[in-house]
Specification:
The protein has 181 residues and is mainly α. It has helices at 8-14, 23-30, 33-44, 52-63, 73-93, 110-113, 116-119, 129-148, 159-180, and strands at residues 50-51, 97-100, 105-108. Helix 3 crosses helix 4, helix 4 (52-63) packs across helix 5 and helix 8 runs antiparallel to helix 9 (159-180). Residues 5-19 have low confidence and may be disordered. Residues 1-12 have a biased composition (Basic and acidic residues).
């Protein structure tokens, strides 16, 4: 049996208003590993709503490096109690979830999806762009020095050609940094 949520938040969603979570609320929610696990569990669920018992069981497994089947009553109860009394009500207050304490059902809101990017670490960049920038700056300094000292033979690059080359080098580095981020 699936319960239907009936509250003012649903009416807000239907009216087209967006609920946004403040930056302070986001970081407060993310400051606790158990709440991060709850968000991770909601992100991995295919169901529109999840049961508190199932969430507590999975989080207990993650916290104890066990499978769900190996979690004992004490481990599950400890997680269940803290979710029930503290974490889910707090997440409900800042519109991360909709939580019906009497039924033990949890519905993710649009606010929870705002937190997904914070859960996964960013992959390291392909290049160390600081080093690339230093090399390109050194090359540009060399080219400007050669042009200033007029060491380029006749028929070689003029000032406009060198300026164009320097501009293209910096454009290439900037585009590479942008595409790598």
């Amino acid at each position: 049996m699936q319960l239907e949520r009936t509250n003012d938040k649903q009416d807000t969603e239907q009216s087209g208003e967006q609920s946004t979570t403040s930056t302070d609320d986001r970081f407060t929610i993310l400051s606790n590993s158990r709440r991060r696990h709850a968000i991770k569990y909601l992100a991995s669920s295919d169901e529109p709503a999840v049961r508190l018992r199932d969430m507590a069981e999975q989080i207990a497994a993650w916290e104890n490096d066990l499978s769900v089947y190996e979690v004992n009553y004490k481990q599950r109860k400890r997680v269940y109690t803290s979710l029930y009394q503290t974490h889910l009500p707090r997440m409900n207050r800042v519109d991360i979830v909709e939580y019906d304490q009497s039924s033990g059902m949890i519905w993710p809101t649009d606010g929870v999806t705002e937190l997904y990017p914070y859960l996964e670490p960013k992959s390291p960049p392909v290049f160390d762009w600081h080093q690339v920038g230093i090399v390109v700056s050194g090359l540009c300094f060399f080219l400007v020095t050669v042009a200033f000292l007029e060491l380029i033979p006749d028929g070689g690059w003029d000032g406009y050609g060198i300026a164009f080359l320097i501009s293209m080098l910096f454009l290439t580095v900037t585009a590479g940094q942008y595409l790598d981020s």
